[in-house]
Amino acid sequence: MGVADFFTTKLDAALGWARKYSIFQYPFVTACCGMEYMATACSHYDVDRFGAGLPRFSPRQADVLFVVGTISHKMAPVLRRVYDQMTEPKWVVAFGVCTCTGGFYDNYATVQGIDTILPVDVYIPGCPPRPESVLDGLMKLQDKIAVGRQRY
Amino acid sequence: MTPTPETTSATPPAAPSRHVQEIFLGEGVPESGTENLVVNLGPSHPAMHGIVRIVTELDGEQVVKTDVEIGYLHRAFEKECEIGPYNAAMPYTDRLNYVSPLINNFGFCSAVEKLLGIETTERCQYIRVILSEISRMSDHLTCVGASAMELGAFTVFLYMIKAREFLWEVIESVTGARLTISHGRVGGLKADLPTDFEAQVRRAFAETRTVLEESHKLLTSNRIFVDRMQGVGILTREEAIAYAVTGPLLRASGVPFDVRRATPYWVYDRLDFEIPVGETGDNYDRYLVRMAEMEQSMRIAEQALAQLPGGPVNVDHEGRPFALPAEYVDRGKLGKTEGLLITDIRLSPNLAGQERRHHEKVNAPDKRTVLPPKETTYGSIEGLMNHFMLIMDGFGIRPPRGEVYFPVEGANGELGFYVVSDGTDRPYRVRCRPPCLPPMAALHLMLEGGMVADIVPTFGSVNMIGGELDR
Amino acid sequence: MQGPDILARLQERFGAAVLATHAEHGDHTLLVGLGTLLEVLRFCRDDAALQFDMLMDLTAVDYLTYPGREDTPRFEVVYHLYSVPHNHRVRIKAGVEEDAPVVPTAVPLWPIANWLEREVWDMYGLRFAEHPDLRRLLLYEQFEGHPLRKDYPVTRRQPLIGPRN
Fold this sequence. Notes:
Strand order of the largest sheet of chain C: 1-2-5-4-3
Low-confidence stretches of chain A: none
CATH class of chain A: Alpha Beta
CATH superfamily of chain C: NADH:ubiquinone oxidoreductase Nqo5 subunit
Number of strands of chain C: 7
Strand content of chain A: 5-15%
Mean pLDDT of chain A: 88
Number of helices of chain A: 5
CATH topology of chain A: Rossmann fold
Largest interface: B-C, 43 and 37 residues
Strand content of chain C: 25-35%
Number of domains of chain C: 1
Low-confidence stretches of chain C: none
CATH topology of chain C: Beta Polymerase, domain 2
Shape of chain A: globular
Radius of gyration of chain A: 16 Å
CATH architecture of chain C: 2-Layer Sandwich
CATH architecture of chain A: 3-Layer(aba) Sandwich
Mean pLDDT of chain C: 88
Oligomer: heterotrimer
Distance between the termini of chain C: 56 Å
Structural class of chain A: alpha/beta
Shape of chain C: globular
Largest sheet of chain C: 5 strands, mixed
Largest sheet of chain A: 5 strands, parallel
Structural class of chain C: alpha/beta
Order of helices and strands of chain C: HEEHEEEEHE
């Protein structure tokens, strides 16, 4: 009935609000973007004020997989495995152009975009993206988390 | 509960496999009664330095054997450099040692300049020294900060990244980007320094000195830090030389080898600095060497700033007043192009630092290599032709056939570029000698015999940068 | 020792085994044949006047498309040596034919050659005789081909490998 829907949508909204402000990231850092990730996570461009300041280095405990830096073909199976090991609900952020499309590494060794192996929620382009871009991407991810249907 | 039919089955459950028996009952195993455990410190791990896979065989907490596997960030740098003209390799060199990208840029440019046989201007060399030292400092700050964080000293990490931000703001005001700057060009630089550079650098260095002092107070005589780092991850002098380890690791093992002193390049022979040398080659010595090197880098940069030459002042050659543009066009059509170089062209603010009066200060006076200043390109036909000739396919920088090796002191050690040219505008072979490959090859020596918990600080003090290691 | 003296000393010791020398751009270089390569390297390391105790770099170059070098061996393996006590450098090169790409290993002389030779094998396909552990260094085992060779196009795609089970 209508009443039940009212409760579930309010519950969805509440859960979305809670989830978006408590992001536990798994920073899968490989390359240069890692330096900008560090800069974003530290005091100057603090990402802790978004609730995303605690990285969890275990896929079981993390919600968001930040793929930071170029993924080579040697690394791709590892990335896929980490993604598979994460528990629902989970989101993926492609940080940096190398993860979005392969960047300017159009060669035999680079995966041309991680969306060939994982479903990606937010793409943050830049080589490396400025911390302001990263925070913008993070806010878009937060909107996505809050607005989408919540998985229980 | 109703009994399930399986419980009344006649066949007993299968006996545990022999392997399981061995582990749990200790039967049929070597006399020590234990088996070594193989643990994989996988490519994705919390130590934020880089992706490497260390397969360790453990006897309790002791590391018996390690096998280090690299290559997870292989991005075909050497192959990509062969595609484009020489200056197109600049963004790729940025991403080699991405924490000190200016050193890689300038190293590559210097190698090609050596191949071409051209000499850059003095001001350019001083600027390269200053920017390299700032880059070196940002590398050491990141390394020491990250190693401290891995030991639990999160505050030091935050302080050092804060200092790094000040340095990056300085770099951003010079080059336009914080990290991947592509500032070097063969024959010079992209642009000159901004006018308030010296003031910015003094402010940034003052902040960095405060941070270094605070970090010293927090770490250097901290009981926990010293206990974890001293006597751990030792690399003896003989091992270091046999494994061709250079840089802070070699200096921590007692060998005072620094490329800036051994084969001075740019203007390092005019600057006065010390080379900090350690004694035992353990992690603590490496930490002290890096902290001391940061202080020396600041000293070098300040001396270079004081000695920075002004460079030739741009002369308005003819002294002719600016005339109507139409008149210039008419004169140009008639072929009378002398004096047209003084056309007053105002460049976009994005091109600040690249105006003609700055151009000569930082670029070699070599028309075959260096792009002309924008006023000349847009203001005269010779300039435009020169610009085109350098940019078009098949033309451009064409060093003579031959090979050259140019070593610079990177933040991790000797960064060498071996460039082979076949006379065309594309490099035939570009080889980067990675300074962190030898320490990673020697990592097993540093880890074996130690404990599992020592792997992380040792790996942190090696400062492996994936971009450089795997290229 | 100065560069020309180093080359002179090597030439006096090895005589006819030295195929060529040059000192272009200030880098003193010696070209030897594969047969005498190991002896030359050993002499460089052990001789008191030379004492090249550091193998700075070991790499290879593929001269397939180099104009004017069609009749020389296809590959050239290049050793950059440095001496810590004397602070001098030298470059030793040896040509490697395409149909017999086997080079004597320098691992007994300098342990760093282990990884550097693995990289040359990975990128060029040059085998090193008696190398203790010749496997790929930077690429994965299922990778086909040797990418830095000139006939390997940079944009060739490899099939994606799945997670290990």
